[in-house]
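To illustrate the input format used throughout this study, we show a single complete record. The first block contains the structure-token representation of the backbone; no residue identities are included at this stage. The design step must infer an amino acid for every position from geometry alone.
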């Protein structure tokens, strides 16, 4: 997919510039042709020779350009580029991009390239929070430039705060997605839509150290969140216990219990257009969570724990759902799949229900693959093949996008 892709890697002034060496290596290893361009700021942190050795091409800087008539010029690089990656992107370069400023060779090349662009910011937390930077980021996003938001992490300043650049492996993942979407553009889009996804297993406490839960890994939910983001949606993922990594660019809210999940869902439904409930939510909770650890000695051979039904989140959502909102539930069934799933479609007031036969360990909790049936009122059921969870997620969000666009 990346093989023979012409990538122009713009390295700007940040301590994170050393990570762009790893990025160059990853791209070259995947078969891409890489040309590196460095701002004066970047040259303060790292030597062009390192990039030259890894990319096997001379590096373009404000000082090198035009020096050698035999060398490819920066304007040729602009035209040669399939994908321009600005990594790390400092506040100054983002500001130039947002305002069309071309006052040196690097910013001129960036302005002259009409290829797809990916910006990976890294900066001090105050610079990032500055309204001017936020405005500039919003502008470049509106211009169609992909951005991988920095994370909260240990900054060069010596404290943890938002502004830390994401790791090259995550950037590579996003590059692969961008290339895939360009090669096979999806039929439907979720651009301009806000999508709320839930993933993973809730934990219902019994005492301070014990809880009941289930085997959901979060793979299905994270795949759905990524697929929705790939179709252009602004995605918020509510994570109960999730055991897989979450792609960059997705907003994450962490919860533990089903009541925390319910509170987060009801709050976020005020601002989201779509809800996809993939999470495996507890149906029961302790009548009384013991304040102290239950002691073995206090029990006879057998003992009884009392549970009551937990609130049904989707039923609570159905009560506040607006007519322009779209809700999707998953039904994890071990028997009478269609019949039980259809009951859930109606009783939970859903637009779409994904029926999931979890009696087969190859396609259920924690598995890499899944096979599901999409059920909607007034539509024939659609059964998928056994496919990796990301492929099932793509089919699901495509169907959601199709329905929304017809609404
Ligand atoms: O995470 P993985 O390991 O990848 O596994 C994926 C999965 C098997 C968990 C997923 O594909 C799945 O089937 N999720 C739904 C699990 C579930 O809780 O199913 P259910 O049939 O019990 O509930 C039906 C729907 O009601 C679900 O959308 C659920 O989120 C929702 N629910 C359940 C209980 C509750 N108290 N409130 C709810 O809203």
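Output of the design step:
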């Amino acid at each position: 997919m990346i093989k023979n892709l012409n990538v122009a890697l713009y390295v700007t002034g940040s301590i994170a510039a050393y990570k762009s060496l790893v990025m160059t290596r990853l791209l070259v290893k995947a078969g891409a042709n890489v040309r590196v361009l460095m701002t004066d700021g970047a040259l303060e942190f790292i030597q062009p020779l390192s990039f030259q050795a890894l990319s096997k091409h001379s590096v373009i800087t404000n000082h090198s350009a035009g020096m050698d008539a035999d060398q490819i010029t920066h304007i040729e690089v602009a035209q040669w580029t399939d994908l321009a990656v600005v990594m790390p992107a400092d506040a100054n370069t983002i500001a130039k991009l947002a305002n069309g400023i071309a006052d040196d060779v690097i910013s001129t090349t960036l302005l002259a390239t009409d290829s797809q662009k990916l910006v990976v910011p890294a900066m001090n937390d105050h610079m990032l929070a500055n309204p001017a930077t936020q405005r500039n980021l919003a502008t470049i996003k509106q211009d169609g430039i992909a951005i991988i938001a920095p994370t909260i992490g240990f900054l060069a300043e010596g404290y943890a705060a938002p502004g830390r650049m994401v790791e090259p492996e995550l950037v590579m993942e996003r590059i692969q997605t961008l290339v895939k979407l360009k090669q096979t553009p999806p039929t439907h889009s979720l651009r301009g839509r806000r999508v709320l996804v839930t993933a993973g297993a809730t934990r219902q406490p019994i005492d301070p150290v014990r809880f009941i839960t289930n085997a959901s890994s979060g793979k299905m939910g994270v795949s759905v969140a990524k697929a929705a983001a790939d179709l252009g949606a602004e995605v918020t993922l509510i994570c109960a216990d999730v055991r897989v990594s979450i792609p960059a660019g997705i907003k994450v809210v962490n919860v533990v219990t089903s009541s925390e999940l319910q509170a987060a869902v009801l709050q976020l439904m005020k601002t989201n257009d779509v809800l996809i409930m993939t999470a495996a939510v507890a149906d029961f909770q302790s009548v009384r969570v013991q304040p102290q650890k239950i002691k073995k000695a206090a029990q006879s051979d057998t003992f009884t724990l009392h549970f009551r039904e937990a609130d049904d989140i989707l039923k609570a959502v159905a009560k506040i759902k607006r007519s322009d909102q779209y809700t999707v539930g998953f039904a994890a069934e071990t028997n009478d799949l269609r019949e039980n799933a259809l009951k859930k479609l109606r009783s939970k007031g859903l637009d779409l229900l994904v029926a999931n036969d979890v009696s087969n360990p190859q396609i259920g909790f924690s598995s890499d693959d899944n096979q599901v049936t999409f059920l909607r009122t007034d539509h024939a059921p659609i059964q998928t093949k056994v496919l990796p969870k990301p492929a099932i997620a793509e089919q699901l969000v495509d169907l959601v996008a199709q329905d929304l666009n017809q609404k």
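Structural context for interpreting the output: Residues 216-221, 258, 277-281, 283, 310, 312-314, 329-332, 344, 356, 358, 364-366, 389 surround PMT (CB under 6 Å). DSSP finds 14 helices and 22 strands in the chain.
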